Amino acid sequence: MIKKKSLWRNSLLIVPLVWLTSCSVFPKEESTLAPPLIEPAKIDYKTAEVRKGTIVKRVKGMGSLVPVGSQNLYYRESGGRIQKVYVAEGDLVKKGQTLVDLENGNLVFDIEQAELELEKVNIELQQLEAQGADKYSIEKAKLDVEITKVRLQKLQQVQESSKLLSPINGIVSFVGELKAGDQVQAYQSIVQVAETSNLQLMYTASGVNELSDVKLGMPVHVLVNGKELKGKVVQTPNEVPADALKQNDDVQQRSIFVRIEDLPAQSKVGDSLDFEIITQQKDKVLMIPKSGLRTGIGRNYVQVLQGNTKREIDIEPGLVSATEVEVIKGLNEGDQVILK
To answer: What is the CATH number assigned to the segment(s) 47-56+282-338?
Structure first.
């Protein structure tokens, strides 16, 4: 009887434990969270206001001083062969300096021989005069002296004609593509020498289109040692001489030349000077920054910000400078244009 009571008591204890254990096995239900509200990111556009003002189109840069003109040197007769060219482009030369020599065979020896012959006949003449020789012998000796002088002078002229000498103090601006042994033609340009005292400004653009608006006679502002000097365009690609085109077509088609007033005396070939040419200018026009103009498939348009809304508007551009665009039609003063 006692044993049955114990079993009953133990069973009563086991039931609550099983119930507690079963409760811990099943997970508790969690409450569902609502998704967070995501606000769209605000776009900050960089804008510029359409305004009225003056728009200027200009060409500016740095040019170099070069000689205004040059003297063309050549041989008057064909057939000679180059012995040596003594100079290269850019060399400074003195008046009378030998620039090119032609081959002259035994000419130097012939000249020396003629000089000795002249000395000999002069001595013979002096001897006859000292001896009181008859007048016919003396006259004959005098003729020998004159004949030898003429021969020597002729040889010396041939020697001089085989050299190209610089006619001025200047700088070599051109040397033909000739080398030792090459035959020359009459009046073929061999060397050009330019005066270094008569200078002008030369500017070569990176492309032909950069100079499309530059016209002959346009005023130029040139900066020399911090001082602004006046200048004038004296040559554009449209006025390039034919002989210059043959020498360097590409450079000449991208270059302009400017004559400068009151250029300082100490200026020299190769000096670099800043310049500016105003090619077009319009006052009191509507304009926007160049970075606001957009193009595509034959369209010229801008993006305008109206409140928080972005709109595309076609426009008619006018004068375009390096930084700004004239707006002829499509926008009003105060409109906010979105920049690229």
So the answer is: 2.40.420.20
